[in-house]
Amino acid sequence: MSTYALSAAKFLLPGTVKRGGYLVIRDGKIGWHQDERPAMDIVELGDSWVAPGLVDTHIHGFLGHDVMDASWEGLQAISRGLLAYGVTSWLPTPLTATVEELEEACATVASRANDEPGARMQGIFLEGPFFTEEHKGAQNPAYFANPSMDALGRWQRAAKGMVKKIAIAPERPGAPEFSAEASAAGVVVGLAHSNATIAQAEACVNAGAGIFIHTYNGMRGLDHREPAMVGAALTTHGTYAEVICDGHHVHPAAVKALVEAKGPDHVVLVTDCMRAGGMPDGDYSIGEFPVVVANGTARLKDETHNLAGSILTLDRAVRHVVDWDIVRAEEALRMATENAADANGIAGACGRILPGRDADLAVFAPDLTVRRTYLAGELVHEA
User: Fold this and answer.
1) What mean pLDDT comes out for the span 30-55?
2) Closest-CA residue to 191 (of 232, 221, 141, 138)
């Protein structure tokens, strides 16, 4: 079907939820929404939601593969696997490593990005290595360094311009200057894995940093005398805040506080998923660290047993924030589509149902389970 229309109960359109009607798809592109039945083939989706394909902007791996493997076959397996969860766009996310290893990971993503059908790699998110040790999480402190535009330039050249976001610790020497220069170069600067004070975090925000990475996790907690990074995430105007809603990384009450402070239009649902996502419990790795997956969590296999990424999928995160009675379904879907695209500088490519865009769509049941995924108008997953 080169031209057809989707009929559904609800369509998540920019700025509104349209009840009923028809969304025209023409030659793999989004056409327009209309109320009257068009004279073309109709795909009846009943009581479903039709939404933009989900956008996962913080994901390290899936189905046994990791971005740091620097394997094209692994990246393709992740891309294809994500389609079953309604994800049609993602940012491959390398971890802290040597300059050379990060260069190789970037080059691998850029070598054949989106050559074959699968969730689209809309860019790269470099989570590190410009962090500090106090809240290192599953990042290797042996490779931590001060922010460097020279290093970023090297990774960006290897990535053929695909680096969209990089995370830093605000207390690192030169962090505000780096925030200004990287932002001016078109790279979103995030704040993460840091023991920074609120003043240090605000200095980077004032210089251009725009997003807090997996808020609450990997940062000094809120205190009434020193609000620290969490305080900056809650109070800085216009910034975005990622949050991992698997029920393990952040308590639902803390998620609610974040959403009420930022507004649902400035919170981004992410998975921070590692290679064990979609896999059975057992022993895995993240970066150079062994990890054990059990009871819904991935934890470092050492004396700390710290969380090491997640095994969350983005559709589950959407359902969780609705089930926890924090936001409405419409808001939850936007947190995993529009907000994600806006916060990461990729809003021109994904996150909204707009005429002329690739028809990358997710179809949800009323309970927000994924029924179908479309990529360029082709049905690529059906539950």
Assistant:
1) 97
2) 232
CB 347 within 8 A of CB 341: yes
- Could you read off the pLDDT of 295-319 as tens digits, one per residue? 999 998 887 788 889 999 999 999 9
Q: Which two tokens stand for residue 337?
A: 């589509």
Nearest to 139 by CA among 331, 2, 304: 304
Q: What is the DSSP string of 128-168?
A: EEE--GGG-TTS-GGG-----HHHHHHHHHHTTT-EEEEEE
pLDDT-based confidence at residue 129 (cuts at 50, 70, 90): very high
**Phi/psi class of residue 289: alpha, beta or left (left: φ > 0; alpha: ψ in -120 to 50)?**
beta
Question: How far apart (Å, rounded) are the C-alpha atoms in residues 108 and 69?
Answer: 9
Q: Are residues 42 and 61 in the same domain?
A: no
Structure tokens at 141: 């402190």
Residue 102: inside a domain, yes or no?
yes
CA distance 340 to 86: 14
pLDDT digits (tens, 9 = 90+) for 168-203: 999 999 999 999 999 999 999 999 999 999 999 999
Pair of tokens at residue 245: 């809603």
pTM (predicted TM-score): 0.96
Q: Same domain, yes or no, for 227 and 86? A: yes
The fraction of the chain above a pLDDT of 70, given in percent, is: 100
Q: Determine the pLDDT at residue 288.
A: 84
Number of domains in the chain: 2
Question: Which residues are designated catalytic?
Answer: 272
**Cβ neighbours for 380, distance < 8 A, ≥ 6 positions apart:** 83, 117, 373, 374
CA atoms of 215 and 249, how far apart (whole Å): 10
Owning domain of residue 12? 3-50+356-382
CA 240 to chain centre: 12
Distances, alpha carbon 248 to alpha carbons 260, 264, 298, 317, 333, in Å: 20, 21, 10, 12, 21
Select from 210, 102, 95 the least CA-distant residue to 151.
102
